[in-house]
Amino acid sequence: METLTCVGCSATKPADQFHWRDGSKTKRRTKCKECSRAYGRAYKKKDPERWKSYERDRRKKQVAADPVGFRAAHAEYMRNRMRQKRQRVIAHLGGKCCRCGFDDWRALQVDHINGGGVAERKLARSSDALWRLVLADKDGKYQLLCANCNWIKRYENGEGCLIYDEEGET
Ligand SMILES: [Zn+2]
Ligand SMILES: [Zn+2]
Fold first, then answer.
1. Which residues of the chain have pLDDT under 50?
2. What is the distance, to the nearest Å, from the Cα of residue 68 to the centroid of all Cα atoms in its chain?
3. 72 belongs to a structural domain
4. CA 1 – ligand 1 centroid, Å
């Protein structure tokens, strides 16, 4: 097996541990993937603005090279990320409906036990923001309800459709 020695960490590794230098796949980079990642992270921290513009350019090139494939891959990536985050939040809250014990994550929704304030409801329109609140919460303000129990609670509390809409995306 072909091996290369990394100029970053001086380790000798299999060639596939080194990124290709360009699209033509003839030359490998001089730093291993691990060192490239560390470099990227440091760069991002040091100069976030330049990092962003660099990432934008890189994405543009990828899109130009294969628009359809890129979109599909991106959609898939976002779906997976959403799903993982959602599952983490659900596990964090006990993994099942606190009223009836229903435990299929696809129909579980995050519920603010006391309805939450207006500002919080606004914030929570984006699932990401809500999930961050839930994961950071130390006072047990949130619980899991299945879609059925959630609707029933809304009627019981006369909340109608006022309570925040944490739509159950899959
Ligand atoms: Zn290295
Ligand atoms: Zn339930």
1. 161-170
2. 22
3. no
4. 18
The reported pTM is: 0.56
Alpha helices in 30-139 (DSSP H): 33-46, 48-65, 67-92, 118-123, 127-136
Contact status, residue 12 vs residue 23, Cβ threshold 8 Å: no
Choosing from 36, 61, 86, the residue where a domain stops is 61
Nearest bound ligand to the CA of residue 149: 2
Q: Cα(33) to centroid of ligand 1, in Å?
A: 7
- What is the distance in A from the centroid of ligand 1 to the CA of 36? 7
State in Å: Cα 2 to ligand 1 middle: 16
Q: Are 18 and 28 in contact (CB under 8 A)?
A: yes
Tokens coding 5: 């020695």
Give me the domain span that covers residue 26: 3-61
pLDDT in tens, 23-70: 778 889 999 999 999 998 999 999 999 999 998 998 898 889 999 998
- Cα of 32 to ligand 1 centre, how many Å? 4
| CATH number of the domain enclosing 151 | 3.40.1800
Res 121: pLDDT = 67
Q: Tell whether 11 and 52 lie within a shared domain.
A: yes
What are the residues facing 109 on neighbouring strands?
A: 145
